[in-house]
Structure formats: C-alpha cells, structure tokens
UniProtKB/TrEMBL annotation:
Protein name (Swiss-Prot/TrEMBL): Lysine--tRNA ligase
GO cellular component: cytoplasm
Signal peptide residues on this chain, from the entry's feature table: none
Catalytic activity: tRNA(Lys) + L-lysine + ATP = L-lysyl-tRNA(Lys) + AMP + diphosphate
Biological processes, Gene Ontology terms: lysyl-tRNA aminoacylation
Family designation: Belongs to the class-I aminoacyl-tRNA synthetase family.
Underlying gene: lysS
Keywords: Aminoacyl-tRNA synthetase, ATP-binding, Cytoplasm, Ligase, Nucleotide-binding, Protein biosynthesis
Motif 'HIGH' region location, chain numbering: 44-52
Native species: Kordiimonas lacus
Gene3D superfamilies: 1.10.10.350, HUPs
PROSITE patterns per the UniProt record, alphabetical: AA_TRNA_LIGASE_I (PS00178)
Compartments it resides in: Cytoplasm
Keyword check for Ligase: yes
List of residues binding ATP: 293
Length: 527
C-alpha cells in the first residue's frame, strides 16, 4: 500500500469503489490463504476478442486499486473453460469440417483447425496468453482440463456429490420442463466416445463420489466424479471453481446476472462466501448487436492494435463499464486522442485528481510522459489531404508545423503516424465522397481564400487561422457556423467530420490549403 486511502476512495473512480468492497470483506485481516484472489473466465470455444481482454483489463484495474489501498497480497487467475464440449463450429476459423467431426468433445480434445497446437482449446488458450503477455498483465493461467484431471477440484466435487439434492434443486426451478428431465450438475465424459454428455445422472454412493448414467447409445456406466471423469454444468461449475480456489473477486457481463445469483447460492451451500464483483455491459458491433466469439463480429484484438495504441484500448475498457458501447473501427480515433489528453494532464495534476484520471488505472499510477505536437485526428486529416502513404511525407508537414520535431525525438508521434496511415487507407479512403459546394458555401470558401492569402504563408497559429475560418463563415451569413464547418470537411476532404479546421490548416500549411480551397471553388475535387 503506497497511496492515500481517503483520496483514492473520494475519487469515486469505479475501480476504487470496487476495491473498497474487498477492503470491507477483509477488514479483520487477510484471508487464510494469505492473499486476495481475483479471477477472470474465458470460454475458448472461439478466438479471443476484445471483450475477453476487457474483462482481464478491468479486473486488473480493480486489483491495482486494491493494492493502492490495502497491504494484503493479491493474485489474478485467468481461467479457461477448455473442458467444455464444442457445441457448434465457429464461423471464423478454417477447416470447419475437422471441427464438425469433434462436436461435443472437450475443447482440449478437439483438433486444432489451424494446425499449430495439440487441440483447438490449446490454440485459443495460447492466443489469449500471448495477448495478455503483450500487455504486461500479471496473472496465472489455469486450464479447466488440467484442474479437473490433476485433482485440484476433487474435494469440491465430492462436496457437490454429497450435497447433490440441495445443489440440483437450486437450478431445476430455472429450467423448462423438458430440460429438467435430463439436467444434472455433473456432465460425465463418455468412456466410449469422449463426448461431454448432458444426460440424467444418479448418485450411487455420495460418500465415495460414485455416479451412474447412460450414454446416448443407451449403455450404462458407473464412474467417480473426481480425476476429470466428469465436469460440472455451467452454473455449478462456476460455484465449484469459486469454492475450490477460494475466489474473492470476479466480474461478469450483464447477460450473466442470473447465473451469478444462482452460482452464489450454490457457493453458500458448499460452505463459503461468493466473490465480490459487478456486472459490466456488453460491447456491441457496428449494427448494435452483441459481440460473439463464434460469430467473430465486432473487433478482434489484433484489429484494434493494427490501427491504434494498446493504451487507447485500455482507456476504452475503463470508460463507462456499465454502459453498452459500440466497439467498431469508428470509435478508435477518439479513444486514441482521449488517452493522450488524459496522460498529458496527469503530470500537472495533484494526487486527488490523479486518482480520478483514467491513465492512473491503466498504468497503475506509473503514467508515461508524452510530447505530442499533433493529435491523431489531425494526422488522419493530414494523410487525407496530402494523400500521404508514408511517414516521411507526414514528417515533412509536422516538422514545419512543430520546428525541430523528428521521429527520433518524438517516437510516440512516429508510432501514431503508422497507425494513421493504416487507418486512413482501410477505413477513411474507401468512404471518402467529395461534393460540390452549395452557393452559400462557395461564397464562404471564396472569403476564406482571401483571408488565407492575407496571412503569412508560414503562419502556424491554429487560433489565428481558426478566427479566419469563423470570419469566412460569417461573411457568407451562415446562421449556424456548424453547417459551415461541416461543409469544410465534406467539400475539402470528402469526410463528414474532423478536428478543428484551424488546427488542420496550421498543420497542412496555408499554401497547400489555398490550393485545396481553390479546387473546391472550381469544383475540381469532385470526380
């Protein structure tokens, strides 16, 4: 513990509010195991997506907040449910016929369609860990298959067997009549086919952990519930994990609120206290639909990182976790610039303000220092106007705007240039649509041309230039200057919006902008 507890809690930042729950949970001292355990879960039936990262990122933010206000050690587990049966073939993987032949088998027994790992589960686990390692998360990875087969869960599985009726009676009222007839807290692994069976189970000897069941062919088996011979049904599995590992904190999506309630009841039946946590809202794709691993809609982890900094992604995860947000390519530019704005403010803030700053939670208080003379949004517009396809061209404009700026002394800006070029080529350029200026707009452009010609060609003061842009709109008698600014982007750049036009002109250059305005007046940008 290194921080000011009162200031941290007074900040009302949601990670500190969550961490306070754990402080109250252990107000009399640290738990018997010696640390507070945070857990995140991952279902490797599909490739990891940003929602998966979001849960680890947000949980890490809560853990860092707890570390700031408590001396109790912490530990984070990333748990993969890789013993689940493959229910359907994801649409975004190759060799789908290969997976079709393994439907129903545990994911760690399903062949890897990519041909790089021993199983599909192992492949997706590796993808997740590689990404988490890239972000520098401190965590321990747990595989459900390993935990079940190693005996780590045996003690709790035996408890469930002894308390079978109490556990099953928590779940049965939530099921339809037909499902009740086949439901069991235990899912046996068929000795003949290796399939995870959803069949009725009879407890033969609760003290010895022996159950019996029939497979889909009608053959009857007896087995023990330990040693990986069975896995638990979802809601029971969650509670079993909480009990076996003694989990203290786990968050979940809003779609799992009822599951959290049921699993919490079962955790109490098993003799323990459910973990603390909260329910975050789900991410939506471009059409407002829930992101799905199996459908592959929305953004992948790799896609965001191709167009923006990792820190911007972390900021997006921090902001408004209880609000459903679109997670598509058009949110990236704003997230990038907001991250650097918060990071720049951090250096001059007092301790109380820093605890509220999102970058404290992204970096655990150790926020990097940046010097960015140009925003990401401005870079995108510069790429658009200059038709730039390489950093060298961009640096030519930037070094004139910010004297002495180079890739060597502004490496972060150099990195942003690479992102801007890729983002422009893939998302802005294909949608650019220039239009002719309306008569009122044409009059404003003619006024802007005269006003820019009156300025020194080397003028780079964005406020001075913005005054002339305002005045040109007023000269043409725009009642709402927003309509004039909108026309600037649509007519000059073929886009619907952008950063302040004064900043863009200052960066692009008076001479270059005059040439652009002249073409707009003559209608030469269209076609």
């Amino acid at each position: 513990m290194t921080g000011n507890i009162d200031l941290a809690l007074a900040s009302k930042a949601w990670p500190f509010q969550e961490a306070e729950k754990l402080v109250k949970r252990y107000k009399s001292g640290k738990p018997e195991k010696g640390y507070v355990l945070f857990e995140t879960g991952y279902g490797p039936s599909g490739l990891p997506h940003i929602g998966t990262f979001g849960e680890v990122s947000r949980t890490t933010m809560v853990m860092r907040a707890f570390q700031e206000i408590s001396d109790i050690p912490t530990k984070l587990i990333c748990f993969s449910d890789d013993m689940d049966g493959l229910r359907k073939v994801p649409s975004n993987v190759p060799n789908q016929d290969l997976l079709t032949t393994a439907l129903g088998k545990p994911l760690t027994q399903v062949p890897d369609p990519f041909g790089t790992h021993p199983s599909f589960g192992a492949h997706n686990n590796a993808r997740l860990q590689a990404f988490l390692d890239q972000f520098g998360f401190t965590y321990e990875f747990y595989s459900a298959t390993d935990c079940y087969k190693s005996g780590m869960f045996d003690e709790t599985l035996m408890k469930i067997c002894r308390l079978y009726d109490k556990v099953i009676n928590v779940v049965l009222p939530t099921l339809g009549e037909e499902r009740r007839q086949t439901y069991s807290p235990f899912l046996p692994i068929c000795p003949d086919t290796g399939v995870v069976l959803q069949v009725p189970v009879r407890v033969e000897d609760p003290e010895a952990g022996i159950i019996s069941f029939e497979n889909e062919a009608g053959k009857r088996f007896e087995t023990v519930v330990t040693g990986g011979k069975v896995k638990c049904q979802w809601k029971v599995d969650w509670a079993m994990r909480w009990d076996a590992l003694d989990v203290d904190y786990e968050m979940a999506g809003s779609d799992l609120i009822e599951s959290v309630k049921l699993s919490s009841i079962i955790r109490r039946i098993l003799g323990g206290q459910p973990p603390e946590g909260f329910n975050y809202e789900l991410f939506l794709d471009q059409d407002g639909k829930k992101i799905s691993k199996s459908k592959g809609n929305g953004l992948t982890i790799e896609e965001w990182l191709a167009y923006a900094s990792p820190e911007s992604l972390s900021l997006y995860m921090f902001q408004a976790p209880k609000k459903a947000k679109r997670l598509y390519f058009d949110v990236i530019p704003k997230a990038v610039d907001e991250y650097y704005t918060f990071a720049t403010k951090f250096e001059g803030e007092d301790e109380a303000a820093r605890y509220k700053n999102p970058t404290w939670h992204i970096h655990g208080g150790d926020v990097p220092s940046y010097d960015l003379p140009v925003s990401f949004a401005l870079l995108l517009n510069l790429v658009s106007a200059a038709n730039a396809h390489d950093k060298e061209t961009l640096w030519g404009f930037v070094s004139r705007y910010a004297e002495g700026a180079t890739a060597e002394n502004h490496p972060e800006l150099d990195r942003l240039m690479g992102y801007a070029i890729r983002y422009y080529d893939d998302f802005v350029k294909p949608t650019k649509t220039y239009r002719l200026a309306e008569p009122q707009e044409k009059a404003a452009f003619e006024s802007l041309k005269l006003r820019l010609e009156a300025l020194d060609e080397n003028e780079h003061d964005a406020e001075v230039i913005m005054t002339e842009v305002y005045s040109a709109g007023k000269d043409a008698q725009f009642e709402n200057l927003r309509d004039w600014f909108k026309a600037c982007y649509e007519v000059l750049l073929g886009q619907s919006q952008g950063p302040r036009m004064g900043g863009f002109i200052a960066l692009y250059g008076i001479k270059e902008t005059l040439a652009l305005v002249d073409k707009a007046i003559k209608g030469q940008l269209v076609g």
